Structure formats: structure tokens, C-alpha cells
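Memo to structure team: turn this sequence into C-alpha cells by end of day. - J.P.
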Amino acid sequence: MPAVDIVIPVYNEERDLPVSTRKLHRHMKREFSFPFRITIVDNASTDGTLKCARALAAELAEVRVLHLDRKGRGRALRTAWSASDADVLAYMDVDLSTDLDALGDLLLPLLQVRADVAIGSRLLPGSQVSRGAKRELISRSYNLLLHLALRTTVADAQCGFKAARREVLLPLLEHVQDDSWFFDTELLYRAQRARLAIHEVPVRWVDDPDSRVDVIATALEDLRGIARLRRGERDAAARPSPARERGPRHAPLSAAALPARPSRRSA
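Reply from structure team:
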């Protein structure tokens, strides 16, 4: 049974997938002694990604492949994590924008049960980030919005470099509704609400110039997700508590006020 299962969600990535998977596999073999698995989740690709993934699984014993008929990064992560038997469940983007040198700092606190969730952050002191001014502004603005609207405390909710202990992650997945790009944010939001210990790791991150993420569409989707969570908070606050529904609360009875329990002889 693997100690760590690293999920790579992919959609039409036949060019980058072989290089990234082999690089990650070499790094895991070289740097760590614990058993691991790499799970490639094909999100309904229309090119040769699935064929490529299956070839990698045949080549590398630690690689397995899942295929989904519908797109959605959140759907891919939910499916792979729910089916995994590893102690620690992780994921990273196929472009490996995050330097793998941070992987030990991400995984070891979870394996040693010093944290529940671990995330890479491009906005912590010590992070080294190479990306355009537009993406930098969008990222910082988005995380500021999360802090104001949802009172999140993590520095960077969107970095594609996250992990969690399976025993705390699986119950969280039951409450996460999003199956696309907002999945990360909602997962962290619910982890914070559950008072889980979240460990943040500064990373070296280089923007992928060939990224296919539609920034505008993703931003609109994120805004809808934030609004949904805000509505959920308002509905929960307006819902009467069970104590109010039952009427006035009474102070608990002391032991002396409880009726004496009859003995067998007197009964």
C-alpha cells in the first residue's frame, strides 16, 4: 500500500505528460524511501493523452491510470482520491510549474501527522515566482477577495500543489460541491471551517506560457463559487438552533437533582 498517492489531472496533454511523469517518478525514487503511487486521471481527452498514460503505466510500476468521460479538475481529484488507499493524497499540475524540491516540505508534515492539509504558496515570504504582471495581479486580487468574503487565512488558495491526510480529506469531500476549478478553494475553505491544521509551503513557481486555462471564465466561475459559499453562511446563520426550536433552555440537572435509581432489592 502506498504511503503517498500523487494525482495528475490531464486534458489533452499528450506532449507534456511523458516528460512530467518520468521527471516526477525519478524524483520520488531518488528523494524518498516510502512507497508511492502516481495516478494520471484523463479528463475526457480528445487527443492521444489516454494512450500515452497507459503506456507510462505499462513502463513504470508506480503509475496507474483512471479515465473519466467528463471534464473537470475537481471531478478528477475527487474520483482519484476517493478510490485511493494511500495515507497521504496529493496532486500537482502536469506542467510541473511548481519546483519538485518543495515536495518534501509538502508531504513530510502529513506523513508525520504534524499537519492535516499542506499547500504550496506563491505568495509567502521565500517564494520565487516567475509570471507576468497580469497573472500576478489577478492572483493577489483573488486571494484578497477570499480573505474579505470568506475570511480565509491561507496566502494562496490556487497553487496546483496540494496534499492532505486521507482520513481527514475524505470526510471533507462529502461537503465540497464544485467539480471544476473552484474545487481547490472550496476544499481549503471547508478545511479551515473544520479547524484542520493547514501547513503552507513557499515554492519556486514558473508560469507555463502554454497554459490553457481561460482566465476570464475561471474568474467568473470562482466568483459564483464564492457567492454560493456566502449564501451557505447566511442560511446557516439564519437557521434557528435546535435549542430555540425546543423552547427556553434549562440549566442541566445536577446529580443530586436526579431521581434515585431503585436497587434490585427494593424493586
